[in-house]
Amino acid sequence: MKSSGTTILTILSSALLFGIIGFYIGYRTGSKESFLKEKRLANEPEHLVIQSAEWFESLEQVSPPKGSETSPSTEQAIKSAAIAENADAKAAGPEIDTFPIILDTTRPVRISWPLDIGPDTNPDRKDSRLCLRARSGVNEIQEQGEGWALYAFRISQPGKYQAFCRSRWTTDGLSVVACNNSWFVRIDDQASSMIGNENDDSTDWQWVDGPAAELEAGVHWLRVELREDGPLMDRIAVTPVGEQPVPEWDEVPTVRPGNLAGEANPLDPQRAIRTLEFFALPTGSLAVGEGHVNEITIGASWFSGKEGTFAGTVKVACPSAPGLTVKGDPTLNLNSDQLSISRLITLEFPPNSDRRIHEVILEIQEHEGHPVYRTQMKFLKGHTWAFLGPFKDTAQRSKEVYRGTGSLRELVQTCDSSPAKIAQLASSEDLKLNSLPLAAGFEKAEWKIIEDGSCYDWTGAIDLTSVYGKVDSAFAYAVTWIQAETALNHRSFNFQPDDSGWLWVNGHILAELPIDLPREANRLWTSAKLDRGQNPVVVKLAQNQRYWGFRFDVIDWHWQGRRGDVIRGIPASDWPKNKQ
């Protein structure tokens, strides 16, 4: 019996040992396969098939997106397209100099985002006239070397000439013009000259003195560059030095130089002007959501004096938003008699598209299918946000910080040390905020959840004034949740508060900006560890004056933009309630 029991025990021990070994080998094999699968996913393109958008033939065949209104931008862009299609060879300009030479800013030779072309949609004075625009918020999204428009003019006699720019300044959130009243302008390879920045109260259209230069006979180049938000420009005059603007200049017909093909401007001599030049600019909203109209204006110009034709088609695709629909005419036809054309197309993203940045690919092809132009544009379907506030800053510490004398430390609350509790949308009583006074006009602090994107402005920044209206000397909390496909030890984010702000991601404080700063691009880059799955984001924002908002952007760079690292927003219905 003893020998039999020992044998059984030995068999069981051996079976257990083999079971453990088998489990270990299976676990290691499965883990390796899982790792290799995730590694393969992370190195593959996120979307293997690019699906073209569905086109409607014309804007008249469809109604505007739900919740939106036909804006002056849409209406005027359609009209301007019809006007542009009727352009004829007379637009090439006179053979003999006739001054002033008037250039149309809506017909650049080349243009760089975030400058764009459209009507004045500023709330202080909406105007349907088409113009070169630097809309409010463009400084926040400008990238280095971008934000310029290039124009050409030809003179037959050498001499000293001066440019004048017909511009209009706009007001900011406090009806102040001082921060919206200048451009940079340069002629040929001269240094840029600042124009404007002198008249701080007028918002009328006016001729503004531009730079002067000694010029030889021939083709010359004038470049307008973004300096600050808000200004508009619709005409540029070039005239011999000594001439001054007169009212009649407003009615002088515009001209454009004839054959520019092969010419190279001194600011970019490596890229000579081609027979055909194209541009595509997002001239509506970059934010996808209720009430936001996403539109792209496409322009094409013929810069050769030779006979010939171009018949092209616009193609649009968005790999991350299958089901994207496009409304507008996709055809572009140019020749020596039809010198320029513009097209407006509107984009409608599918309701179930991910909450993230969507790269829209726009391509112009010849009728035989050969691509001649390609660009990418970023449209944002913003995260769902929940807001709590607005709590009154009774000591007005944010205003003192604005003047460099105070501290926002006194705005720190007990709940700030428990961002996970804030992310769970605990009540103001549980967060020990119920004893704080609210801003004028508010009776109770409750979480307000916005899922339709209406808390975003056209640039994709969160705007608390759209949530609470105009409020001074206050602060509020904002919460969202993001989904990570894989665990990440250091995922990068961009945080831009206006005014002072705090940022927590996944329970860790990443930013504390205790001084009032404008909301500008790339204000703060930081990073956080993310778990695979759902991760909370908490923002606390103080309001001093003017604007009240922030940007929270997920940064895709190097390996971080690969398939396995995609970050998406989560609907409020799927937010965890007890995430620790």
Produce the secondary structure layout.
Layout lengths: L1 H42 L10 E3 L15 H14 L15 E4 L5 E2 L4 E5 L6 E7 L4 H4 L6 E8 L3 E10 L13 E6 L5 E4 L9 E10 L2 E8 L6 E9 L35 E7 L4 E2 L5 E9 L6 E9 L7 E3 L3 E5 L4 E9 L8 E10 L4 E11 L3 E8 L4 H6 L16 H5 L24 E3 L11 E2 L1 H4 L5 E11 L3 E11 L2 E5 L2 E6 L10 E7 L2 E11 L5 E6 L12 E3 L11
Parallel strand pairs: 1-17, 14-21
Antiparallel strand pairs: 2-12, 3-6, 4-5, 5-12, 6-11, 7-10, 7-12, 8-9, 8-11, 13-15, 15-19, 16-18, 16-20, 17-19, 20-21, 22-23, 22-25, 24-31, 25-30, 25-32, 26-29, 26-31, 27-28, 27-30
Q: Can you describe this structure?
A:
This protein has 580 residues and is mainly β. The chain has three domains: 47-89 and 274-381, Immunoglobulin-like (Sandwich); 94-257, Sandwich (Jelly Rolls), CATH 2.60.120; 385-574, Jelly Rolls (Sandwich). It contains six helices and 32 strands. The strands form six sheets. Strands 22, 23, 25, 27, 28, 30 and 32 form a seven-stranded antiparallel β-sheet that branches. Strands 2, 4, 5, 7, 10 and 12 form a six-stranded antiparallel β-sheet that branches. A hairpin with a 6-residue loop joins strand 4 and strand 5 (127-133). The longest helix has 42 residues, at 2-43. Mean pLDDT is 83; it is low at 61-70, 81-94 and 403-407.
